[in-house]
Amino acid sequence: MPDAPWLHIVGIGEDGMAGLAPAARAVVEAAEVIVGGDRHHVLSDAVEARRIAWPHPFDALIEKLESLRGQRVVVLATGDPLWFSVGARIGRAIPPSQIAYHPQLSAFQLAAARMGWSMADVETLTVHGRPVEQMIAFIQPSARLLILTTGAQTPAQIAKFLADRGFGASPMTVLANMGGDAERRFDATADGWSHEVPAFNTLAVECVAAPDAALLPRVPGLDDALFRSDGTMTKREVRAATLAKLMPMRGALLWDIGTGSGSVAIEWMRAARSAHAIALEPRPDRRAMAAENALALGAPRLDLRDGEAPEALESLPSPDAVFIGGGLSEAVADAALAALRPLGRLVANAVTLESEAILLSLHARHGGDLVRLSVERAEPVGRYRGWRPSMAVTQWSLVKR
Description:
Elements: E1 7-12, H1 22-29, E2 33-36, H2 38-43, E3 50-53, H3 61-67, E4 73-78, H4 86-91, E5 99-102, H5 107-115, E6 123-126, E7 144-148, H6 154-164, E8 171-176, E9 184-189, E10 201-206, H7 236-246, E11 253-257, H8 263-271, E12 276-280, H9 284-296, E13 303-305, E14 321-324, H10 330-339, E15 345-350, H11 353-366, E16 369-373, E17 376-381, E18 384-389, E19 393-399
Helix pairs in contact: 7-8
């Protein structure tokens, strides 16, 4: 019979101990050690136990918890410990069989109830302790967003993001201290937001697009004009085809080799929740452009690195997908293939005869798909219009089996 869990993670709300289910209340009252933030200790101050604050840096939490093994240990978290909360972080380091979770209503559920929104029809996001810009990727016409904020200034920052993109008419509601005696609500549109709000709050946004609003779908193929570039970037139609072969998936890691303006890596990160990308680019001016694009388009966690393949690939974590947009060689492709995880995807694009010859050789050795992509755009020709072709792109792709 497996041992009983030694660590209890209890969700607690603004109503404190009174709001806990009887079993969860008994666990907290029997604790020898309680770990949590200042507000968690205040909410449970009637319980006599040794108190430990969140460690700094926060990554030291696991080591601290392990040192308490053998005692009756309770970690207090806000709401649901497994929904954008500390419980998930602990569960990745300590086997789930050693942990008992005691969830409370989450801030998302309380906010949805206050707004009268169906949880099935909203996007739940957190920018708590994370770059606020990551919510930009979710600004869509008619979208409803529930956002755990990072402080009193966050709603104003998000209001500016909305207004700058043509969503200034979007109603915004800040809900603070939900479920407690001090619960408060603040309402305004994004372009009229001026409230001073408590630091601990949840933001609800109903996105309303103006006729000239920027359309930034999470489906790959954003307008080229949205990216700052020196001209060396994977263009819209080819980028969409490239991302289709790379297959962005939740939590997956992309290596973008020769990232240039970062367009492929940024769209990869926008296309799937928690997708990551390491973008290699030896030129500092292009890294600066890619960083600017990442912030503007909602991928602030793009991991930009100075380096050239294949040397710079050796120390990187194994990828789920690799895109070779610059610095193509057989050595780079071979190194990428060796590093790819099973079912990993590799895509390489070429526009010159010399780089196309490399793809022909790689296809002969490894198989996969080899296609040519040609795009023509209607442009003025004197008083008329005609088709102007872009340079054809040869694309080699395969899935590692």
